[in-house]
């Protein structure tokens, strides 16, 4: 029996990964009736990571936590056995804000979700850091776990990155003691340090709405945070990934977390490696297949994993800007885009599912 593994990422802003996979599977079955089609939606550690885990058999656990500017939001995490998967974008994501708040946005809710998972018995926390709204150095996350950020008078600082310029001391007396016995794994493709021209504020602050003067203020705030932490004997500001998610990686490094590429973590969570043996074809994809895809994003990770096993990989996308040579080098046997069959860009954005079915049926005829 012909076997196809369908492992796409989301088409950002138009279709979640699970619906992308379902549309592709429908087209394949129409083009090759009787084929065994395994749907395995993926993510790269950012938004969609929890959904990918749930599609792979994890339980979704609803929770209420503090949103990007401290307001309560209904969110949740994924859990299976001792492992909990927490997605920063689902509680402190930039897309959750009606307008950016670069100086005051917080990761408080991430720490609250971590504590909720610990309360439920988790001993392994996997954190996806993409899509952050905040540049608070992960201090909100630490607060959610019981730490306090204090000024020189012993008063607790307001939430957000800007207030850290007045940080005098971090009180860890209330930090959740269970963290000593918990494995922390960070899914992130960012290798930036906390500070400097390649750091959290300089590189990612503008993406979160920070003006040049805001970036200068946030850089000063993060530098003060690093000084206070360094005085306690911990110096992880230069750890690759410390600058991830506005410095959230830094706080997690302080807690002893390990870092791995997002797609590698998601492939492990979804069990994709176990689905590949015996496959005749793998289909992956995302909204835009471009140079960014080749820098560790989901489809590139899928292509690499399949190529190692000698399985051809086809990518489906909303659009593709990669030439045939770049595709071959990345391990793709071919790529198809919605705008190949539908010149109306608006329709590609508003009705991607039926177009994906048509492309998948074409792939079935040409590759199976």
UniProtKB/TrEMBL annotation:
<keyword id="KW-0418">Kinase</keyword>
<keyword id="KW-0808">Transferase</keyword>
<dbReference type="InterPro" id="IPR018193">
    <property type="entry name" value="Glyc_kinase_flavodox-like_fold"/>
</dbReference>
<dbReference type="InterPro" id="IPR018197">
    <property type="entry name" value="Glycerate_kinase_RE-like"/>
</dbReference>
<comment type="similarity">
    <text>Belongs to the glycerate kinase type-1 family.</text>
</comment>
<dbReference type="InterPro" id="IPR036129">
    <property type="entry name" value="Glycerate_kinase_sf"/>
</dbReference>
<protein>
    <submittedName>
        <fullName>Glycerate kinase</fullName>
        <ecNumber>2.7.1.31</ecNumber>
    </submittedName>
</protein>
<dbReference type="InterPro" id="IPR004381">
    <property type="entry name" value="Glycerate_kinase"/>
</dbReference>
<dbReference type="Pfam" id="PF02595">
    <property type="entry name" value="Gly_kinase"/>
</dbReference>
<dbReference type="GO" id="GO:0008887">
    <property type="term" value="F:glycerate kinase activity"/>
</dbReference>
